[in-house]
Amino acid sequence: MHAVPVLLTVGAPPSAGLLLSALLLATWPALAAAEEGERASAGAAPASYADVSSPAGAVAELAETPSIDGVDAGSADIAAAPADSDRGADGAEALVAETGTADSADAPVEETGASDSANAPVAETGTADGGDAPVAEASAGDSAAALATEVAAADSADALGTQNSETDNAAALAEVAAETDADAGLNPPGAEDAPEQPASLETAIAGLAERSFKVKQQAADDIAASGDERAADLLKALLNGDLYYRKDDKRIVFAEKSAAGLALTDALTGESLGEVGSRDAAKITVNNLMRNSLRTDIATLTLASPDPNVRLSAALEMVGTDDADTLAALRAQRSEESDGRVADAIDLAVAIAELKSEDAAVRLAAVESLRGSLYPAARNALGGLLASETDAGVLAAAEGVLADIESRVQTYKIAETVFFGLSLGSVLVLAAIGLAITFGVMGVINMAHGELIMIGAYTTYLVQLAMPNWIDYSLLVAIPAAFIVSGLFGIAIERTVIRFLYGRPLETLLATFGISLILQQLVRTTISAQNVIVENPSWMSGSLQINPALSLTYNRLYIVVFALMVFVALLLILKRTALGLQVRAVSQNRAMAQAMGVRSARVDALTFGLGAGIAGVAGVALSQLTNVGPNMGQAYIIDSFMVVVFGGVGNLWGTLVGGLTLGIANKFMEPWTGAVLAKILVLVFIILFIQKRPRGLFPQRGRAAEG
Amino acid sequence: MGLLTSMRGDTGGQIMLAVLAVVAVVVPILNLAVPESSPWHLSTYTVTLLGKYLTYALLAVAVDLVWGYLGILSLGHGAFFALGGYAMGMYLMRQIGERGVYGDPVLPDFMVFLDWQQLPWFWHGFDMFWFAALMVVLVPGALAFVFGWLAFRSRVTGVYLSIITQALTYALMLAFFRNEMGFGGNNGLTDFKDILGFDLQSDATRIALFLASALALALGYIACRGIVTSRLGRVAVAIRDAEARTRFIGYRVDRVKVAIWTFSAMLAGIAGALYVPQVGIINPGEFSPLNSIELVIWVAIGGRATLYGAVVGAVVVNYGKTYFTGAFPEAWLFALGGLFVLVTLFLPQGIAGLLRMLRRRGGGTDGPKTASGEASA
After folding, report:
1. Largest CA distance in chain A
2. Is A361 found in the same domain as A444?
3. Are A443 and A505 in contact (CB under 8 A)?
4. Burial class (CB in 10 A: 0-12, 13-18, 19+), A468
5. Are B309 and B303 in contact (CB under 8 A)?
6. B375 in a domain, yes or no?
7. What is the pLDDT of residue A55?
């Protein structure tokens, strides 16, 4: 693949048409390099394989590194979190871009939500603990540029039945409305407080600009008491020394160090106020007394949030603290906590704090209360305790609890690997199941199968182009569309080429390989030689948090479910419909079927179309997991054949069991060997397996097996 | 086995060898003797290109031997080709010595780059040409023997065999992409300086390599002819046409298959070894299953079970590719794809079959008896 540059220096004579020579010489070995720019990267093949195993598109590049096991969608979410908060902090430019999406995405209200400050702590914590995607994606809307968005959001907030009493200026209204909307999207009850509270926050905050600590203390207490969503952030900023007031108008602002001095954002509206010299704004100072009360206030504020997710992340944030006030707030909240997960998190925080107690009995109780906790913090704290503990009883208990936790975590780890394996296996099954029909039932070695998958993926792309405002629903349209498009391609291929080649499987291999080249080039010339971007609907992102040690990402989950659905549908078609009966009849004994009145030519075309259509449907699924480009089909063709051959030709169940087995085996080997070696071992295993059982896991029996 | 006996009755092969001989004489003259200013001068670049085609042709002959006469459709012959190429590449790498970018007298550049302290065990001996030459044949041969011994004894045939050969080359490709394998990973082996002390860039060396390729092709062709016309070859054709029956008659089908299969792999290895010094690089891309399929296509287009057809197919397709990718890069895949489809549908005997048909229509009667039906194993 690097042949071109090398040949330029090595192969070509200096005299005769150097450039042309290099071009000409770049033939077979450099096929890719000469004709397909993007394949020139020599790692193309393994990389694209790795893509399969890691569902998150964002991780595609990372996936080239051997160990994919760490790179699951969970970590993709975490990776996305800083990006999102950046977006919030970046100000106008980023927000303009944001406005674009928000404008178009008017239907799903949650997506247009705006969290209020540049720090966007809610968004951050929401993501970090694997909370739902809409929260993570809601980025701060707080500049003039974003005004339009916010007004739009305000409309939807009205539609939700929220009343807004404040009307001084449009920006503020929009801001509050947007915020209430974000609130309402997450947690409708919270919206009820909105009408009466903002006023008190507006007045309370003014006191912060005063010199007297007493007044400031009062102001902070008022803010805490206001119950406003922004209160916690304000107090946090105050505590961290990020809250300033502008000297000329005493406006309370968030400040960040910048080149010119300080970059200011209005603390209430989030409006960007530009940069000022460091002398034009003054930090609002706090004394120790205030600090203590602020910590308590913040803890109580966030813990008292009506949204259990916010409470959960607040509690988790407090894990590891040994601040007495915070702990008191935690204990207070614990007594009235209704949500189990939050209660667990609070228990965890309290127990970890109590591990440091002077009293051995308290420590022992704390150790016991950590039993079974799957949070990494619990393990770390216990590990730390083992190193420092002096009391033998506590030590023994801690060892026991830790061992117990480790074994449970191990179990969940295995469960997670199985799940990863199932999702990889489902991808394999999806890719292979169309082939199980064309190859398994009809005996046609369809080398263009991968390209039919590619066509399905490109159909998804085109469908999304046609309905840019409805990305969330595009897949529902794309699935039947891809089935039809790929199916029609399949029928065309069968009618023009394959029907002349029945009974000559090796010839079909050559002809369909030719077709695959034509289809690739067709896509390259009509659409693009580059990979295209297929968007993931919002409901595909995020993950299902089963417990702190085990979370299942939605896209993997969906792919498993989808593969099973396709499988069942296909099985029903083959076993329960007239077409299925005819297909089986023709594949078993063509002449006899014809004698019984089956129009075998029509059945052939429909069968091939069915197999091709399923390949197209697989393409829709794969477009969500991997790069969509003219070469994507080639990445799957060998895997698909392996699955079909491993499972047993002509047997759908074999394909299912074969695909899932290979997927799980692959994932279990990966931690030991790395992704590429695991893949190689699987291939070698199949080669050896075929020696033992030449007809696969579930061999066909009877007359059909003689073919 | 005399050259004459094995070539008897093989008109196509005789013509092919004659053309090859003429080319082998004319090309060096046009390149070395004719001055560069003359329109008849053949550039060294073209010589290298022709040399490359000849190595492809040898590879195609190796494939035709197992596909045309034994009924084994190998979708992994590119692996043997690449292994031979790697063996030669390792020798050429060791020849670079201190002239590498890092100037390490023993370690090739990529190993220094990966911070390896010593040469992996399998790199030892490749500083000697005879050892490398031996490995060019032995490594592909050994792999083919083990693979064939396993596969043919278990009677894996037809499509299954094709697919596991494809898995074989795919697995090798993935393996060679790994840096840890010690074969240069993605980049493969390149930046060669000289072979047997001769500068690889010089015209004379290029001509020598070209002549070596021509000679290897001629010898390989005659050897394959020898096998095909021998008793072994007849058994092979019997296996191709009715494997079970041949077995029941009492022939050890698996042994015949392993023998011819291994020989074919060795031939592919030699082709690879001649290919690498001419193009100046070997990388894991050569293992790509696509390449292996493509070379099957050369054979199909040239005409299966004729041997000389494979030579014709390899040269024609590759020339077409060189031409098209230069002139109409967009159209090449359409042309190639269309060619596969059309040849399979309308020209099952390939170009050789077409020529035979034309000759018969012209009144010729002595067409060589080649396989008529397609063994649809």
Report:
1. 102
2. no
3. yes
4. exposed
5. yes
6. no
7. 37
Q: Do A43 and B177 touch (CB under 8 A)?
A: yes
Torsion of CA B286, B260, B344, A595, to 10 degrees: -130
Residues A407 and A419 in one domain: no
Closest-CA residue of B relative to A510 is B340
What is the count of residue pairs from A and B with beta carbons less than 8 Å apart?
224
Q: What is the CATH number of the domain that holds B84?
A: 1.10.3470
Is B295 within a domain?
Answer: yes
A351 and A445 in a single domain? The answer is no
From chain A, pick out residues whose CB is under 8 angstroms from the CB of B338. Answer: 514, 518
A679 and A620 part of one domain: yes
* Cβ–Cβ under 8 Å, residues A504 and B159: no
**Residues facing B209 on adjacent strands:** none
B258, B341, B343, B349, best to mutate vs chain A, most A CBs in 10 Å = B341
- Dihedral angle over CA of A450, A452, A455, A457, nearest 10: -60
Give A127-156 pLDDT, tens digit per residue. 333 333 333 333 333 333 333 333 344 344
pLDDT digits (tens, 9 = 90+) for B300-323: 889 888 999 999 999 999 998 898
Of A1, A5, A4, A70, whose CA–CA distance to A29 is shortest? A1
What is the strand order of the sheet A272-276 is part of? A272-276, A262-266, A252-257, A243-246, A281-283
Report the alpha-carbon angle A557-A562-A563, nearest 5: 105
Which whole number is the average pLDDT over B75-103?
91
Residues A363 and A426 both lie in one domain: no
**Helix crossing, B350-361 with B308-327: angle to 10°?**
110
Q: Which helix (H) or strand (E) holds A547?
A: strand A543-547
Which chain A residues have a beta carbon less than 8 Å from that of B280?
3, 6-7, 10-11
Contact B297 A12 (CB under 8 A): no
H or E, element range at B365 = none
**Which of chain B's residues have a Cβ under 8 Å away from the Cβ of A450?**
none
Write out the residue range of the structural domain in which residue B144 sits.
3-361
pLDDT of residue A2: 40
Rounded to whole angstroms, the Cα distance separating A514 from B344 reads: 10
Same domain, A564 and A419: yes
Alpha carbon A402 to chain centroid distance?
32
CA distance B135 to chain A (A): 22
Owning domain of residue A167? 90-195
Whether residue A597 sits in one domain with residue A537: yes
How far, in whole angstroms, is CA A164 from its chain's centroid? 35
Please answer whether residues B140 and B269 qualify as being in contact, where contact means their C-beta atoms are separated by less than 8 angstroms.
yes
**In chain B, how many domains are there?**
1
Can you give the length of chain A in residues?
707
In a domain, B370, yes or no: no
pLDDT at B371: 41
pLDDT digits (tens, 9 = 90+) for A324-340: 777 777 777 777 777 77
Q: Which of B206, B198, B194 is nearest to B95 (CA)?
A: B194
DSSP state of A90: T
Distances from the Cα of A481 to the Cαs of A438, A478, A606, A618, A707, in angstroms? 20, 5, 17, 12, 35
Residue B2's pLDDT band (cuts 50, 70, 90):
low
Looking at per-residue confidence, does B218 or A255 come out higher? B218
* A655 CB-side CA count, 13 A: 31
> Residues A515, A390: one domain?
no
Segment holding A257, helix H or strand E: strand A252-257
On the 0-12 / 13-18 / 19+ scale of CB atoms within 10 A, A570 is buried
Predicted confidence at residue A43, as pLDDT, reads 36
Token pair for residue A665? 């085996």
Per-residue pLDDT of A265-288, as tens digits, reads: 777 777 777 777 777 777 788 887
pLDDT digits (tens, 9 = 90+) for B274-284: 999 999 999 99
Low-confidence ranges of chain A (pLDDT < 50): 1-199, 705-707
